[in-house]
């Protein structure tokens, strides 16, 4: 439960206007409200992991996409977990990792950015956001050692550079700017192969979304023992897809994703039929 203002001493309240990190301020005032740094791995729910999150740069911005499932012991368990959250109108985070921990990290990051912008009185640059997220990933290091790493991708439109940008992170909080595409999660190895083969400079948004769907299809097919493979057209289950461009962050409607997913599935089926015909 959040502390009432009456329980916070005057010095702490005054420091909130000088400490530019909300996480540091919260650690001083109410550390129990921060995401945990250690957890009991005996809790089955904590073994759930969002499997694949990816981002692709295209000519007018960035596409970020994630499958809807979470995996427990490499079997698909839940098919409605949303792994992409917009932090504001220019930036979005996709997260692979234990669902609850991922949500807490994103909410803390949102508060971190809002707090810093109020302290400085101006918008935080894309590079500044990437730096702030690094510190939050670093604080998850203990859980990473327990196999519960929360791994984000930061994607958004940079108003200063006038282009889409993607940042990936390692478990120590180190960040890397990716200039074409990036992928995290347990299916990243399989999806990356598709992205490396299919990506080309100058792709438009629809081409990038189609490539993202195809990469997720491969990741799901190869990464789980579940019988489900890729978009489930019969049940209306499709990847979550958003784009960030000069107009802001937009969640692509399910109906539009469904059309592109159907096209991708048809292409995969046709390719499979041709391979069988040759053999």
- What separation lies between the terminal Cα atoms? 64 Å
With strands numbered from the N-terminus, the spatial order across the biggest sheet is 11-2-3-12-13
Element string (H = helix, E = strand):
HHEEEEEEEHHHEEEEHHEEH
Helical content stands at 25-40%
Low-confidence stretches: 5-18, 39-50, 70-81, 142-148, 225-229
In what range is the share of β-strand residues? Answer: 15-25%
InterPro entries: Ntn_hydrolases_N, Proteasome_sua/b, Proteasome_suB-type, PSB_actinobac
EC number: 3.4.25.1
Protein name: Proteasome subunit beta
Keywords: Autocatalytic cleavage, Cytoplasm, Hydrolase, Protease, Proteasome, Threonine protease, Zymogen
Task: Give a short overview.
By secondary structure, the protein is of the alpha+beta class.
Give a description of the structure.
The longest helix has 25 residues, at 254-278. Residues 5-18, 39-50, 70-81, 142-148 and 225-229 have low confidence and may be disordered. The strands form 3 sheets. The chain has a 5-stranded antiparallel beta sheet, with helices on one face. It has a 5-stranded antiparallel beta sheet with strand order 6-7-8-9-10. Strands 1-4-5 form a 3-stranded antiparallel beta sheet, with no helix packed on it. It has helices spanning 10-15, 22-29, 99-120, 126-138, 141-145, 188-198, 205-223, 254-278; strands spanning 49-50, 53-58, 61-66, 70-72, 75-78, 84-86, 91-96, 151-158, 163-169, 175-178, 181-184, 240-245, 248-251. By secondary structure, the protein is an alpha+beta fold. Its EC number is 3.4.25.1. It comes from Cutibacterium namnetense. This is Proteasome subunit beta. It catalyses: Cleavage of peptide bonds with very broad specificity.
